[in-house]
Amino acid sequence: MSSTTRRDFLKQSALASAGTILVGFQLPVFAKKQALITDAFIRLELDGAVTLMMNHAEFGNGAYTSLSMMVAEELDLDWQTIKLEAAPTEQRYYSPLFGEYLTAGSVSTASSFMPMREAGARTRQLLLEAASIHFSAPISSLRTADSKVHHRDGRSVSYAALIAVVEANGLKPPEKAKLKNPEDFAVLGKPQRRIEAPEKVDGSAIFGSDIRFDDMLFASIVRPPVYGGFARDFDGTNALAVKGVVRVKKIDAGIAVLARDYWTAKKAAGLVTVSWEDGGNGGLSTKGYSVEYRELSDKPGLLAENIGRAEEIIAETEDGLVIESVYEMPYLAHATMEPMNCTAKLAGDRCEIWVGTQYQSNDRTVVAKMLGVPEENVVINRTLSGGTFGRRASKTADFVTDAVQAASGENVPVQVIWSREEDIRGGHYRPQFIHRLKGVLDNQGYPLAWHQRVVGKSIMQNTKHDPAYMVRGMDIYSLDGCLQEPFGVFPYGTSYEIPNHRIESHNPAKTGVRPHEWRAVGHTHTGIAYECFLDELADKGSKDPLDLRLHLSRKHTRMHNLLEKLKKVSNWEQPLAAGRGRGMAARVYSNSWIAQSVELTVDEDGSYSVDKVFCVVDCGFAVNPLGIQGQIEGGIMLGLNAVAYGAIDVVDGRVVQSNFHDYRPLRMHQMPEVEIHIMPSELPPTGVGEQSTTPIAPAIGNAIFNATGKRVRDFPLDRQGFVLKG
Amino acid sequence: MFKLDVNGQQVTVDCSEDTPLLWVLRDHLRLTGTKFGCGIGQCGACTVHIDSQPVRACMIPIEKAQGRNVRTIESLKRDDNFSVVQTAWLEEDVAQCGYCQSGQIMAATALLEKNPDPDEEAINEAMLGHICRCGTYPRIRLAIKRASHQLSRGES
Fold it and tell me: CB–CB of A512/A429 below 8 Å?
């Protein structure tokens, strides 16, 4: 085969990638003497490499690439000289937005945009000062490019060679950063390939489960059959008799079997006899939740928003003219490609951890508390993650504590790997939700009154995030995308205006099956309920669904322009053949606006294929259009997957689904063609990772209605006779 | 003790006869490029070649792999050169989280070795068993076509 060397590839491609991502192996960060640390994020190595400290996790989101671009732009780095290191759990690396070491909420790009650029700019100014000494020339005669300072007479000096000058003269970076003008950007805003891609195509990338030590042990955990249950007692005799098994022990999550390799541990785990307690959850069922939530949705909830007189207008309207619907969305598992895992080593009062995580400050706090040691005694080395969709931001640090407990008393690193069955059954799920909606139209057929009750478990209640995300007893994430006005810390509303608009909330008790963030959080259910019901009102009022949204958003420029664009690029008004349908939805999440329309074909038996998806996004300044495109394709895939098949059922406290045969993933031939349009913008960048997941589900529901006249209100679609082909 | 040929090297492994090839590679031989995704042959993350055929390493007990030629993702680069398929993967910027990509690339490599100019149907069939939860499917398709184009231009 013809082939390209890595170096050639890097040379040939202007969009090339760089070096190796280092995973910490008890090397104190910044211990290297022969390097210059100019900033918390930048270390110039004598060999010419420039190491960038990554304070956001990489799990497919593209953070490592966009953060590198920000520094590379301002510091004029040769992309090939960049090396990356996962920043340690120190306050200075915490997200400026969250005040924690947390990669979540699709805000990495937004919150890093200034700090990373400033880091690059300040280092550049320092190097210019050093070069001015080196050349005995004024800074005005110098410029930077390709990790070098160039004098206008043609001479140049590498950044690495300037390290000695900086040190000899005791130079320090300036306080104030001089940033480039956006019109001078050479890196930001241009398509950039993923920086760590070479490691991901040759098998050398290190994910959590790839951590290896000579003396390590692997562990499999026998988990309780009933969700939230625990082990009372166990007999590990038969497991211990298996060659290679080292230990069988009880931990909080169940019974851990430790062996020299994972297969042996897993096999032996099947031989442990356990007497289980069900933790009072033996009667849990998702059908039960459904009944309970439907009843609740008939009762007044806490008042989140009350604009105008929605309740009164509905009460005054004769029954036949009030449109009422109930939408139900099930539990969803994240099912990341890489099942949960973590490696831990305990020695004395110190604990070292290797893990793909979104939330390492919390992991460290939870582990330190559990072990009763100071936080600094817990060292977390973050690896790449094989997907998260929110799962690896665990407030209980559950997949980390498993490994720490399993490693207790072993003095060697222990790697706990969850089987796919444990992953699907023991997950923290996107909670089940019910929305009851009522609407009244005015005499022109436009929505006059909107009344929505949202029923489902709160994710944030009684967690450390309670103060930030609970407002008057309501979880703002449960309601995200329902309110017209800003709510709590969310500075945006729906970008629609309905004159009478009332939103109520029920957050039932947080017992039983655990609610968790799932890519786009509240929007995964509010999006369906809000955007499908809006379609119902459009239909009743004989309005085109897109035109209705244009009407409702006429005072909201970003939404309005987005919808105009979607109408144009999707050929919205062009008729479709019989059996085909078109639907759309639009959402605002975390300060990005996104709209999607789909075209699908439904056969007489209800089987359907999604032929094409158009997506228009306004995410401010588009830092990396290539990355945005990938995130959007991925979000559409995951959202379509969920609405087509996604459901976790619980019967008698036991999760029914277990692996990819019954928690079905979308496969390649089912993936629709996706056409993406990014709105040009000079505004600060915002996210797309989660946003991309939000409109697709309601757009599909609306397109099914358009094609068949049947309105689906209980999800997923395959349980309502609409089965995605393939 | 089991003897097999992995990436052109004779190796001897001491493990139980039912140990799947996947865990022999990952835990005994420390070739961690081959990934665990489901353990039941549903996701394709553990795809390797045995005697040039793509197989699910989680479904092959070591005794069945004995004496055969096993090729993993680590073997594709020659003298530090990326293969045509790997290069296409980089050009199309396929990977997101990257966890499934070893399996995807091994499947695509096997497909193109057998059929350097696959049509859509052949691509669909070859890739059907390979899940990507990040949704890199459109770019996987583009990368396969790009690699195919390279190969059919006689650059192999």
Answer: no
